[in-house]
Structures
1.
Amino acid sequence: MQNAIQLEVYGRVQGVGFRWMTKLVADKLHITGTVANREDGSVKIIAMGPADALEKFIGAVKASPTPSGRVDRVIQTPLENVSACHKFSVVS
């Protein structure tokens, strides 16, 4: 069963390769969705996949997938009625 979540990630998450490393983790776990920088300095992630893969993905995001990044806070929101994605994309 596919689940969908939104993650709002705060900390040192822009300008450190966070989005691209998040994509690598998502691809490895077969997670689909998007990751994008936000104007307030945070990163927004929409992720879809099986519950067990999403839990691993969330853990990796909270630990910061890039060594030069730092995650201070993650707000997680479950999503419903989300259009399916076929890949994980970095949005500019």
2.
Amino acid sequence: MGNASSTGGGSAPNQPQQLGAPMSASPAAGDSTTGGVTLVPKSSSSPGQVGAGTDDSQSGSAPILAAVPEDKYALNPGTNETLHNKVKDLFPTPFDGGKLVVNKPLSNHFQASHTVVMSSIDPSQSGYKYGITFVGTKKYSESEVYPILLGEFSPAGGDLNGQIIHQPAEQWRVKLVSQLKQGKNLATQLTNEFRWPKANLAVTVANVDLEHRSGTVVADYMHTVFGRHAVGGMAIVGCNPRIPGGYNAVLGLGARLAGDKWQLNLSATPLHGSFHASYLRKLTNELQLVSDWEVDLSQRASLGNIGYQWEMPKSGFTFKARIDTEWVVAATMEKKLAPFPFTFALSGLAHQVKHQYRFGIGLVFQ
């Protein structure tokens, strides 16, 4: 059966169930995928995903990073690139305009999607997009099945985004991301990730051009120490003839401190004077508070956010809200219309200083 959703528009997602979120990975981002993909949509707390929620109605608070005894990689720290993702996922992802998404599972391994976006805020994202997802048969766990192939094509602009994720061995994962615009290669990156029970190493090569002697190499390492606490670092080396000296390098440090009901993430590039801190506090199974703060001393700029996620599993409501130091307020509300396979969503964003207001409304058919 096909699934259809009508939502507020923004950038088109690779996973059709998400609202207001970009395609699963940006070719220039260098992020690391941490799990497999399933064609059967499940309830989650991913940012912007309609119907995000929890089915756990038991009293009390579960640990944020509760380890699963059967999973020997439960204490794997991931990468510096994804260090703040757990906090960012709890902030709302506002959307606006109009969007229609039709999902069509073709088999147990294939799924096609048709997306029509109508947005006056970002006309470049408006139009029709066709997406395809393939999931292989190599299964490592209930949530990890490989290989994974993701693609999205926009006929109007000739844009093509593609992603291949494969795990040749239990400890080795490979990810290739490419973006074409009007037949020209816009960005390409290849990531090799090596996992151990308490350590993670990722090496990324991006936008290599041998003719012009340009490209970027990223080395990322994290190690778990003292229970769930983790420390690590990242080195980025970029080569380009336009850079004085022909290349530049950035060194970064990262750390995660975690308890049963809280998590603090810290990252910094000391030589460039930039710092990033994020904090999560789980008050109950339904209510979580988050905050995020970024400082760039070289640009004399800083931005702070504080927000919350409140879930009501029995009634099917999920609320997310945030406010930042520039007086931008954003909120989303999602309601599962049980027993029907529908989810109703509302979104709003207000920039108090610039007097800008954006609103969105969506309905997802699952």
